[in-house]
Amino acid sequence: MSSYLKTIALLGVALLAAIAAAVIGFAAIGGITGSLIAAAGAAVSLGLCVAIAGGCVVVWREGRRLRGASDAFLEITGQRREPELERPSGFRAGAIRRWLARRVMGHDLLPGDVIRIRPLPEILATLDASGSLNGMPFQPEMMKFCGGEARVFRCLDKIYDYGRTKHMRRLEACVLLSNLRCDGSAHDGCEASCYLIWNAGWLQHSEASRAEVARPATVDVARVSNAIAAGTRNGQVLRCQFTELHACTEEYGNWSLSRDLVPWLCGNYSAKAWLVAVLTRIFNGVQRRRGGIGFPPLPPMGEHLTKDPTGLTVGERVAVLPLEEIARTLNSQGKNKGLWFDVEMVKHCGREYRVTARVQKIIDDATGQMRTMKTPCIMLDTVDSTGEGLHFNAQHDPIFWRESWLRRTESQS
Description:
Strand order of the largest sheet: 8-7-4-1-9
Structural class: alpha+beta
Largest sheet: 5 strands, antiparallel
Number of strands: 19
């Protein structure tokens, strides 16, 4: 907290200096030179005001963390999580937002919308010989949902390219549907529980189709179905949507504003949540340049590893340990047996959740090979990545936990 307050104080001094320069340039110097000084002072003052506002947001969030309250961003975004979208009073996009979305994203399947998943023959008609549409595979795990209804959870305008570039990449016309995650049944029982990605061409509004799918008069259902099944494996290499993320996406420009604006425009995040995250990021940028501590603060790293408790089972209630206790389990790289404790996880320290899975094997996105974990990880109910630190990335990948970062609660009801 003292690091944040020190930075705010320094920004305040700089703001006073910038205001003084603008006043002197306008009132004392005058002319073209004075006008330029005044304009520069005003511009710098505006930037400093934004950074100070970010500092105030960070102090507010850190104060909540120290009091044991839930993280502000996590709490605000909870208003647009799956259960809330299911409520009749949940978020519903207005006409203006829908009109803008059609022009920016090319579709208006927005969070909260009830949609119909097209029947399997119609979806198969959109796929190429590899069982993909625009590079995005249609997975066998998706077939059982065809012809049914679901609710849009997120517009997926970008992904994080785990396998290759480790950068954010643009994804066109895709959404996530509420609670529809991959069960790994066609991929050797992969336990990653990734959200299934749906191309807008495979969906339509439940009341009426607003966009026709271009498809031939007939389709060889058996051929394409076999291509989908065969396309999941090539020898020892498995193929799924997440191993193909690089192929079905494209790079962003160096100064693309859409990475941050589209998630708010389409309704993935409220204006309040968007502002909290953006202002926090701006202040963290200032902190990095000053050599200060970013938010949320990561624990100090050392070689104080502790033994993992064993035997956590699905359904048990656990509490995430305080940050200071987790620090004692991390090595100098901030890892515990190869698993990194990152900033997304700080939001959950001190909170209680239910164990939903013990994860032992997942597909390596980079190689497509199945990896068996030397030490199983724990998955917790409703705990996934918010995307706050990745330009509002909406993949909502589950977060994996070491058992040494959790403890059983007294009440298991």
